[in-house]
Design goal:
This protein is 69% helix and 2% strand. The chain has helices spanning 2-35, 41-73, 79-88, 106-120, 128-136, 144-150, 156-164, 179-184, 186-200; strands spanning 95-96, 102-103. The relative contact order is 0.06.
């Protein structure tokens, strides 16, 4: 059953690619005719409109495919899942203990790690007066005006600024799409992202 759905999807994708190629070729031919002095403004606008619809729908299809792939392969105990786990696992071969000695046996490494985290999370006495002095300068409640500002709905401009602030080449979400995808197609995907954010609140 799943294979038949995939075949239908592949066939539809091939059809869309053929249609896109046809529209590109038609656009080129109409531009050539326009350069020769022909009046092809109406058909040219019609082709541009069809191409615009194609570009508008394509990001939605990419996002949908990414979600489907995540659902199908994300946390299931299949080859993809175990490959992801195995590739993330790198064994610890050597480690320096707190004295600076290099440990290379499992027992020594285990002891060095236990000692390190034991010391790190050891309960330490703190100066109560100093802590109270530090905490006294921090307001315990958010003021009404600040709360009002914090509770205002997110705007498209604020979301755009947040997306532009991400590092290039990084994927800000679980969809696997890089930041450049969102910034370059912002006019198309921005309103959808805002709507998605509003649904999650």
């Amino acid at each position: 059953m799943q294979d038949s759905f995939k075949n239908v999807g592949r066939k539809a994708a091939r059809g869309r690619r053929k249609e896109f190629s046809r529209l590109q070729q038609q656009l080129q031919e109409l531009h050539d005719l326009q350069l020769r002095g022909w009046d092809v403004m109406n058909p040219l606008e019609a082709v541009k409109k069809e191409l615009s619809e194609h570009f508008h729908d394509e990001p939605r299809r990419i996002i949908f495919r990414a979600k489907v792939e995540n659902l199908e392969k994300g946390e299931k105990c299949n080859f993809f899942f175990f490959k992801k786990i195995y590739s993330a696992h790198t064994p610890l071969v050597q480690l320096r203990n707190k004295e600076g000695t290099l440990c290379d046996t499992k027992e020594d490494i285990r002891k060095a790690v236990t000692d390190f985290y034991g010391d790190l999370y050891l309960e330490k006495r703190s100066d109560g007066d100093q802590a109270e002095k530090f905490l006294s300068g921090i307001p315990r409640k958010v003021s009404a005006p600040a709360r009002e500002v914090l509770n205002t709905p997110l705007t498209l401009e604020e979301l755009h600024l947040a997306v532009k602030s991400f590092k290039s080449g990084k994927t800000p979400g679980s969809d696997g799409l890089p930041n450049e995808f969102y910034t370059s197609l912002w006019d198309l995907v921005g309103p959808d992202l805002l709507e998605l954010n509003e649904e999650m609140e």
